[in-house]
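Help: read this over?
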Amino acid sequence: MKKTNEKILVSALAGMTALQGMSTTLMSVCAQENNETTHESVMNVKMSQKDELESKLNDSKKNVDEKTLALDSAKGAASVAKKQVEILESKQDEKNRLVQQDYQVSYDVIMNELQPMLDTISDLESQINDAKKDLDEKISVSQKASEELDQAQKDLGLKKTELIELQNKLAGLGNVVDLKSKLEGAKEERDAVLTHLNSAQQDADAANAKLQDAYSEIGIADDALVEATFVYNEAVNTMAEKEAIVKEKQAIVDQFKDENGIEDAKTELDIAKGNLDDAKTFVDYKFSEMMNAQADYDNALGTYNRFEKDYENAKEEVNGAQINLNNANQKLESIQAEYDANQKEMEAKNNEILALNTQIADAQSEVDKAQTDYDKALNEYNSTSSPLEQAKKNLVDFESKYATELSRLTTGSKGYFESLGCSEDVLSVFKVDDSYQGEVAGYTHMGQAGDATSLENVKASIPYLREFNEIRKKEGLPELSVSMLMMAIAQVNANYAQVEGNHSSAYGTCENLAWGYGEAGTGASPFRGWYDYEKKQYEAGNHKFSEVGHYLNIVHPANTITGFALQKVNGVYAQEFGEHNSFTKDVILSLDEFETSFNNYYNNLKSVDAQHKALKDAVNNASGTTTKDDTALKNAESLLATKKNDLLNLQNQLNQTNSERDSLVVFATTKKNEMDQAKEDVDYAKVNVDRKKLDAASASEVLDNAKADVLAKENAKKDAESKLATAKQQVDALQATIDGLQDNIDNWDINKEKAKKALSIAEMDLRAAKEMESNAKENLLKATDAYNEAMKVCEDAQAKADVTSAALLKAESSFNEKNGVYEKVQNAVLDYDQSSSRLESVETELTEIEGHVDVLKKAQAELDQKIFGLQSEIEDLNVSLTNQKSNALPYEQMKSLLDDVMDRGTQVDLSMVENDQVKALLIQLSMDVDDLKGIRKDLDEAKNVYVEKYNLYLDAKNDLSNAKDENSDAMKALNEYLNGETKPETVTSTNENINTGVDVNTWSSMMSAMLAGLGVVGVLHQKRKEDEE
């Protein structure tokens, strides 16, 4: 580095020499030109421009010299300022080492006394925790034993009740001997009735059997009667037929007996022939009618077939129209489904657009905020002088804004009460004076860690208050409100009890105190002793207030307000009870209101404290450099870019979504038009279906009419056919008559013998039929008599069966009655035997349960004794722990003061320190800390001076550089002017040696000066880098 500096110095000196040589040359030229008076007029103009350039060059040279001197001066001042910083930094290091040494000595002295106490405290706390654990186990076992005892006593009560019920039952049943005697008598009566019942059952069964046989005989007789009736009717019908035949044959025979018979036959033949001709004519007429009816029928059938085809076509058209309607409906439903889906999608897009607009609005707000933050950061960056000053300003502004909150950080619960506007009636509880209440208040160290007034302990009291009110609700009592006066009294009493181990009795309130318990709502809660244990004592008959007073305070119905405090150093718990006095200016809140109010206060103070510490750390960590911290600006710029990008993305997304929504709108419009058209198609199809149905109905009606006409024509045709057939039958009958008459006339004698013979045969058949009818009638009468006889037998059997059934019912009723008596007596005997057996078992079980209850009571008493012993042990250990902590408290306070002295120096009040050695060490440390702070302040000022001087040095370097640039520009302008001539001009004058141009040597001097100037700039640049490093 030394050789480099020497080279730079030589270069600078060479440059300065070159400048000096160039100056001399230029001055010589100027002198020669000023002395010359014989130039021509043109040369005079050129000489005046040259003079101006040379003048500028001289001025710039002077300015360079001045700036060089200013730079040297600024450099010297910066070096002095830097040296002062180095001296103060050395002093700071030395004083800091001394402070650390003083701190360590003070710390060691304090800890030599405090550590054994802390070890003892730790041992006591361990013993207390072990005892509490043992107590919790014992309480848990006691609770289980209590539950088991309660169950056993419940079982005992149930057994006693059952025993009494069994005894009463047996007494109600009477003597067992009498019961068994009644049972035997009832059995004999039941058996006798049972014998009669069996006999009646046998009689009834026999009568019913005979009745069934009678019914069977009736069936047989009825079948025979039906058969005989049928045979008789057939015989009667046969006899009638035979009689008709005899009459017919007799008539024929009678014809042959008449004298004029043949003539009559001929006359009848002629008449028959005439009738035959008429009949044939009538047949022709009926045939014509039949043919007309056939034609009408064929026409009607043709019409019917045509109308049936029309009807079928109409039905097909209805089906086709219905299919078209179904298709139209399906198409409408399809389009409707697409439209509905489109509407849902469009609704989703609208919601998305709405959400995007909301997001864009939020994003725009964020961009605006980010822009505001960026502008603010830029303004702060431009206006901020240094991080340290800004950090100090932030700290001062914060302390000014939150002066009230910062002042309350060390005031504990008192600050909270003040924030509620509590009157002096509440705040005076903490006032220390010569009164007894003032002495009690003297045990309180307001807001200090472990003290009942610390915000942490006040916060920790809330779960105990909630557990207390839950107990009140379980007891059917109203919850108590939280009184700030009661809270304050509980806090000072808890602090008093920590030291004195007893009630202060300073405020006339009802109070519960406890030591050595644990968290609320657990087996270690103080309410396990105050409430659970003492309630059992009270319910067991112990009503001594000295032993169950905690419980009585908890359940006192007249109490309306309460307050709770705990002193976690030694586990002291205090609860105050009372009634609100309207003469006392108190603030009373429900538990929920108190919890919300205090948590808001607590969280706010913690937030302010954290911010304050962060700002103090920022001041301590801030450097004295002038380099601005652009982190916030860059962060704000980056955040602004991010937010703008987010906004742009959302806007692009919105544009895309709008485009998609527009497409959906177009699609919806298309589908709406299609849906409207589809609805029109459906309506048209419905109308068409209705029209086709009407056409089909009309065709059906026409078809029905045609069908009726066909039926009518068919009936007419059938009637005509029937009449034609009848006419033909008449023709055939007449023809047969004519043929018979003709045959009789032609064969009169032969036919006469045939008629007689036929009559004889018919009469013989008639006699046989009459004989059959007589036999059938006789059989019918016999069958009727047999049926009547069977009916009589059946009626007799039914009467007998009715009598036996009535006797059986009576016997059954008698048996049921006797059997009911027997079963009742039998059940009574069984019940008596079972109850007697159960009575013996219950008496045995009762004895066992009573023994078990005695064992459980004894075990419960032993557990209660152990619990009481453990609680006493814990209280004794807590007293010892309280004493140890009381002894350690001054040293802990001294330890806390030690850290406070390290922070605040002599501003810390050390008057409370009673240990002379520690006090002397703290005083010395506080003075050293003040000295260190003074050095740090001087160092900060020196650094600021150095920064200022160094900035002046940099400004001087910049001014010198500018001056050299101006000098170089002047040289360049002059050189350009001189080199602008086409050739060196030489003007003849009285002195031939004078030359108005700049020769080569002059130009070389100028170039050397320029290079030297660059060397000087290089020297300055290198020096600046070294200074910055």
